[in-house]
Specification:
Elements lengths: L4 E2 H16 L14 H12 L2 H16 L7 H10 L2 H8 L3 H11 L2 H12 L11 E2 L15 H23 L3 H27 L3 H24 L5 H33 L1
Antiparallel strand pairs: 1-2
Helix pairs in contact: 1-7, 3-6, 8-9, 8-11, 9-10, 10-11
């Protein structure tokens, strides 16, 4: 599902993923869905294993669950003391949890921290012009990612580009209406995509078409479950679910579509 990505766009995604991780997001995969496996792995490892971001994430989760500053580790308490003086902290403790979390994330200056971590992780990309490209055009696994059935590969290319854009919209927005709209658009495009695959397969083999229908129903169930969760779960939890959809679509294409359509082509 990899597409060309501008160096500037990649740096922005990296920064957004840093902020999401600090806010308590467990899985940040959805920010790097369109990159090849090695670049994605490197970015995910750098952010997920960063000690400061892990401390911030733990602090954010505790605030959400406990609603106060009890049971802080030494690292978490040290971060708080670095951000606020006693008077500011005393005022902060009286605020509601969302306000406290926002104040902590702003005090952490995550934008500057992300720039430093990005430079350390990807020195080869620092200073690249905006039109420099990162990633491989729809070849995350090279030819292993293709079914070798031109009609299906073209459909996958078109579908995957839209999936990447819609998941990015959902990841980067805090507006429930925007997230809902992105998921509704995704479901509509998934239905068209599924119909195209099932129709193509059905002309050659009814059993293959039925396997595809069952697999597609599982994907639709994932998206429906996320749609029902909007407004009911925290933003980090919602982002984790959105990331799961992207991962499930990739898994479906690699484990179901590629072998099935290659088998049909070999039979033909």
């Amino acid at each position: 599902m990899a597409i060309f990505v501008d160096a500037k766009v990649f740096e922005e995604r990296f920064s957004q993923a840093v902020t999401a991780r600090a806010a308590g997001m467990v899985s940040i995969d959805c920010y790097f869905l369109s990159l090849d496996a090695e670049i994605s792995r490197k970015a995910l490892t750098a952010i997920s294993d960063d000690k400061f971001l892990s401390t911030m994430a733990s602090l954010s989760v505790k605030l959400t669950l406990l609603g106060d500053f009890s049971n802080l580790t030494q690292e978490e308490a040290s971060a708080i003391s670095d951000f606020f003086d006693e008077d500011h902290f005393a005022r902060l403790k009286g605020a509601d949890v969302p306000h406290i979390q926002d104040a902590i994330l702003r005090a952490a200056n995550l934008s500057a921290y992300a720039k430093g971590l990005y430079s350390k992780t990807f020195p080869e990309f620092v200073g690249l012009e905006g039109n420099s490209r990162i990633g491989k055009s729809l070849s995350r696994h090279g030819q292993e990612w293709r079914t070798h059935e031109p009609v299906i590969d073209d459909e996958h290319d078109s579908f995957n580009e839209l999936v990447i854009r819609l998941l990015a919209v959902a990841c980067n927005s805090s507006n429930p209406a925007i997230i809902s709209g992105a998921l509704e658009t995704l479901k509509a495009r998934m239905r068209l995509h599924a119909d195209a695959e099932e129709s193509f397969a059905g002309k050659a083999d009814a059993e293959t078409a039925e396997i595809l229908r069952e697999a597609h129903l599982d994907l639709f169930a994932e998206v429906d479950a996320i749609a029902r969760s909007i407004g009911q779960v925290t933003k980090p939890d919602l982002l984790n679910l959105i990331a799961k959809v992207g991962a499930e679509i990739e898994r479906h294409e690699e484990d179901v579509d590629v072998p099935l359509f290659r088998l049909l082509k070999s039979k033909a």
